[in-house]
Design a protein that fits this description.
With 283 residues, the protein is α/β, with parallel strands linked by helices. The chain has 10 helices and 9 strands. The strands form 2 sheets. It has a 6-stranded parallel beta sheet, sandwiched between helices. Strands 5-6-7 form a 3-stranded antiparallel beta sheet, with no helix packed on it. The longest helix is centred in the N-terminal third of the chain and has 45 residues. The N and C termini lie far apart (68 Å).
């Protein structure tokens, strides 16, 4: 009996304390809740967009490493898309699915042929707030990369591209293009010879048909864009890049006069700063 009484006493005491707590909370609940919500609101107001980077041909995601380091130092979450380099019908849906997996705003960045991919993949994606083209294609609907790369003189990558047959999933034969060991002057003249050897050894080839697929959407028509021109670009000529960025009404265009096509390797700080500018502008 004494045990049962003790249990009742404890329960009664607990109920009394709970009631007192409820009264205290009820009296000051609004004032007490505000400080708890403040950190969440502060985090929301200072949150930065995720930066998604898309590489082009003759490269893989590691080409962004130096740029990523600087972006992460600035506090950005960064994601590198493993661009399949099979052409618009494959590459654009792949990158689009990655964009769908990211919650919150995105600044979408591309180099070289990756520009064609993001121009198609970002169409209709409400979370993509800015497009940043780094020595990249920015095609209009119906245009092909083959048309654009020959629109202005100066591209020298064709002669240093090595065709290699490969078997597609359906059994037909495709052609992959690799950058040859002699391709530094045309592709990456302003990095060291040793750095180029690593790039050339780790490159991902692209399907030659990538040049013939027409663009099906032009995301830069509805999403603000930024551009970087590599002044000594012998892959996508500087004149072509300027023309494309002007047509896209880019909010800001930065030129690096001495840079080769791989400006994210030779001038990563300039690249990171432009991405930061775009993120601030749309944030």
């Amino acid at each position: 009996m004494s045990t049962e009484m003790s249990r009742r006493n404890v329960l009664a005491a607990g109920a009394a304390l709970a009631g007192s707590a409820a009264l205290i909370t009820g009296a000051s609940g609004t004032a007490g809740a505000a400080p708890a919500a403040a950190p969440a609101e502060e985090a929301k107001s200072t949150a930065r967009p995720t930066v998604v980077l898309v590489h082009g041909g003759y490269a893989d995601s590691s080409c962004w490493n130096a740029t990523i380091e600087k972006l992460q130092h600035k506090g950005y979450t960064t994601v590198c898309a493993a661009n399949p380099l099979r052409g618009i019908p494959t590459d654009a849906p792949y990158v689009a699915s990655l964009l769908d997996s990211i919650s919150g705003p995105v600044v979408l960045v591309a180099h070289s042929m990756g520009g064609t991919v993001i121009t198609n993949a970002a169409a209709g994606k409400s979370n993509v707030k800015a497009l940043v083209y780094i020595a990249a294609f920015a095609p209009e609907v119906g245009e092909t990369q083959g048309e654009l790369i020959t629109k202005f003189p100066g591209s020298e990558v064709g002669p240093v591209s090595v065709p290699v047959p490969y078997t597609k999933a359906d059994g037909t034969t495709g052609i992959d293009l690799y950058l040859s060991k002699d391709g530094q002057a045309a592709f990456a003249a302003d990095i060291s010879a040793s750095a180029f050897r690593v790039l050339q050894a780790t490159q991902r080839p692209f399907d030659a048909d990538s040049f013939i697929y027409p663009t099906t959407a032009a995301a830069w028509k509805t999403i603000p864009s930024w551009g970087l021109v590599a002044g000594r670009d012998k892959a996508i000529p500087a004149e072509c890049a300027r023309w494309m960025y002007s047509r896209a009404n880019a909010r800001k265009v930065v030129e690096v006069p001495q840079s080769s096509h791989v400006v994210m390797l030779s001038h990563p700080r300039v690249v990171a700063d432009l991405i930061h500018d775009a993120a601030k502008a749309v944030g």
